[in-house]
Amino acid sequence: MINIDDNPEFLNTFLEYSLAYKHKSPNSVDQYNSDLIMFLRYMKYHLKLTKEKEFSKIIIKDFSISQLSIITQEDIHSFISYLSINRRCGPATCARKISTIRIFFKYLTITTHVLSTNPAQNLETPKLNKRLPKYLTLEDSQKLLNATQADEDSKNSERDFAIITLFLNCGLRLSELVSINISDIKFDECKLTVIGKGNKERTIYLNKACIKAINNYLKIRPNNAKKDSKNSDKALFLSAYRQRISKRTVENIVTKKLQKAGLDTSKYSTHKLRHTAATLMYQYGQVDIRALQELLGHESIATTEIYTHVDNNQVRLAVESNPLSDFGTKK
Fold first, then answer.
1. Is CB count within 10 Å lower at the N or C end of the chain?
2. Is the model's pLDDT at 78 over the cut of 60?
């Protein structure tokens, strides 16, 4: 649940609009809320609208539209500097918060006409360094699966193995995995329906390894799952408390299994398993880039194209496989 009790009305209206009309996912709206709470707190301090010195205690519920209207682009630049220097936020984090601020002020000026001037209209985004995604090799992936399957210390070995198997085979996001309900799986068609970013539904086809791992887990999954606001009784993966498994629990599981496999947990994480699945499919499966885009749920193919650059060996092999590659070399 998004905590909106201490927000000004205009912020909560924006969040509701983002959910209901822009069809943003609850996770995205929660991030909007977090970004804008920080932004408004900083503005109260920066514009000397509060005497509170402790940042986390600055109250924003009384932030008014008239106070919003005095915010300038220079004030937003000051906020970005604060993020970089005081909060040590990197370019990617700053870029995300700038994006949130842009969307927020566009809503206030164009959608609702609450403000007449948009101070974020010409806001620039920090230049991001393009980094290749970190991923496990095929050998490391097999190590992780073997370590998870053979972990005799775990009381939930079938569940944990199914989780790791789905991550490495399907490239699921963490939020997508914890949201899976048993009814989302069509066993006769070997496919799974997930709700991804932007509340978009997509189909993921399950291979034999996934089906087997899920079936093995379902044999020992507790039948007395709690009926609560999380619909735990419908959830595929349950915690020790018979509730829908949380993101934090899954992250802890992945960390422990990486350690068990002797892999570097400072280098690899839950999200890196998604990168791993995409990379292995591209490297070994000769998957079409458009098919990979559909599987991963990327809105832009530019996001998917990063996986075409992770294996320079493929580029070399492509050149060497050209039928003209040995022309003129034989005497």
1. C
2. yes
